[in-house]
Amino acid sequence: MPLITLTSDIGQQDFLVGAIKGQLMQQTQGFTVIDITHSLSPFNYPQAAYVCRNAINNFAAGTFHLVMVNLFDEKPEHLLLAEHNGNYIACADNGLLTMILEEVPQKVVALNLDKTKPKNTLYCIQIFAKAITEISNGKKLEEIGDSSVSIQVKNPLRPMLGNNWIEGQIIFVDNFENVIININKDDFEEQRKGRSFKIVFKRDEVIDRISESYADVNEGEKLALFNSANYLEIAINKGNAAGLLGLQGFSEKQVQSNRLFYQTVKVFFE
Q1: Overall average pLDDT of the 111-128 stretch
Q2: Range of the domain at 210
């Protein structure tokens, strides 16, 4: 059964998520619609990229992923539909696509918008739904849009590297207030080179080993592990690491003031 996933920063307070699903069900009959989340922080590209990338990686090829984050960063003239490693990603042309994929998509087209139509979320869904239907009916990507489009590119947030250290930024705080750092296991081990290490963060807190699960430490104690997406996570067993350790990630207010700050976590190798 064909799948469509939905990810957005819309929230659940009004009618819009339900209306989006209603539009999709009318225009893409036979598809199953799956929510990833609608609680992404507005304007928070690193968070959105982390969530989308690690959700998309767990779906079978042929799935359509609708990413409705910061749709109206600028007045849109077109939307994007990309095909990458067998999956389709539909989103605004705002740079988020390359942050999700961590590279330029293998194929991408612009889906042009009617200049006479109001540029709102439901109209964007109609454009996406039409494209999904055409692809599922056998059309190729380049047949339904402009493949000559030059898309906006934003680079994914990367950790900083030194000979004896790696410094990452907090990109996500989950529902349990566990703190996710943009350091994945492969980068960590490559930089570590078998050496011992100390993870250092606010208040000179130090962790010097990687746990396999939260239960590796006593209740109330801090720990570090690599989560199911293989990203470094700082947690407290049955506690709230973000609040108790004074850790904070990206804030929309930082965007509004044009000052981008991320709480950092540094790993020293010895």
Answers
A1: 93
A2: 160-269
